[in-house]
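G., before I forget:
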Amino acid sequence: MTGTDAPSERTRVQRAPQRAAYDRATIEAILDEGLTCHVGFAVEGQPYVIPTNYGRVGDRLYLHGSSASRMLRSLRDGIPVCVTVTLLDGLVLARSAYHHSMNYRSVVVLGTAVEVTDPAERLLGLEAVSEHVLRGRWREVRPPSDKELRATMVLRLPVTETSAKIRTGPPLDDEEDYALPCWAGVIPLQLAPQPPVPDPRLAAGIALPASVREYRRPQPR
Amino acid sequence: MTGTDAPSERTRVQRAPQRAAYDRATIEAILDEGLTCHVGFAVEGQPYVIPTNYGRVGDRLYLHGSSASRMLRSLRDGIPVCVTVTLLDGLVLARSAYHHSMNYRSVVVLGTAVEVTDPAERLLGLEAVSEHVLRGRWREVRPPSDKELRATMVLRLPVTETSAKIRTGPPLDDEEDYALPCWAGVIPLQLAPQPPVPDPRLAAGIALPASVREYRRPQPR
């Protein structure tokens, strides 16, 4: 797809179309920078929106969770799903209430998920979710046991029917409002990791690994 | 409702019920600390999840946007909606891949929204959304004109069918894994405002108001 073509009518951004992006590099960069997603699905006509972790491998998103999860059990039945990733970049403070806004980057992925049953792809998906949160962690920890794997469901969602919406930059006021004696600008926002807090049961003499010590958002490419 | 009773079967937390909270003080505190919400609704069987701002007045959530918004036009028709607010508090790093988790606080509100038509309540809702993002801003800026108000839709959603889910604290590993020579603990996360960036067109001599200069997340009560 090009930068101006939506992959489907229902992923075409309708409000503020100048904020739309449909090119893969933009969409993947937002998916990779996001930490969690919000998964939307409907059961008996009622939509639910649940925050969860995810990982990306190429054009596939992986979700995981308990095999008993109502959300995952609903999704693996092939019902339509929407996965949304939102990055909040700043508060846009205009001179008029009406032109206040947010700077943000968001991606919407529509489609249907399938349960991953191949053992190698299940591990790949779980590793992708783990590395998405904290790169390097997967190889530092005890890997999943057979029993844990049996208790875990992995779902795959293709990143094909998707679009991004982005707002950047300063406020855009009505021309006559620029003369108002009112401060205007942007308060940038960052999701900022704080110093790690050791587990109270951490054994003596175990050093912080570099993955944790140097953790920052977004993780470097 | 009490701390242990869900207001409806469909808001009862099913996975990890020890993380559920149903008391109003907990739910309102999460709603008040969140900056944006994710709104879930279905059109022609396809769920959509859209990030947006909101405000709370008592047991009412207010949403607003363009009168031409597909989302708002769908919602005002009275279709079922789910509004989810998620606060990410930290990465929970266990000694096993399986027990990794996130610390978070989230609220789900189910129901149907109605369009607010009373002019006074419309202004109240818009002020609530504005003050939710940045307290004090509403009185610093040019208020909405009649034309701007005509272009704006305000919706109200009751905060009645709702539940919270919360995870706090250190990782919980399998007993035998505590002996592993692996660092474990929590990386706390904060949504951190950065120094304000003035609009390039800001006139000379306009000082930063205290509302912006002292802005922090969460806003003090």
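The longest strand of chain B covers residues 80-93. The helical segments of chain B are 24-33, 70-76, 119-133, 146-150, 210-213.

More on Monday.
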